[in-house]
């Protein structure tokens, strides 16, 4: 009896480089942010997204203005 092995196994294909249109440039810029005044809290946010009350969204303490080098959005 003759067996026909015409079914092929799936072979994964890997590509080593992204397409150029998918590459993301990480441009860092000096950005004004507000960070929590509590040293035990890591809460901070960009000035563009801060609430009017300037309270930390994580712990509720006040926040102070500072400059950080962050990726451009």
TrEMBL record:
<protein>
    <submittedName>
        <fullName>Cold-inducible protein YdjO-related protein</fullName>
    </submittedName>
</protein>
<dbReference type="InterPro" id="IPR025916">
    <property type="entry name" value="YdjO"/>
</dbReference>
<dbReference type="Pfam" id="PF14169">
    <property type="entry name" value="YdjO"/>
</dbReference>
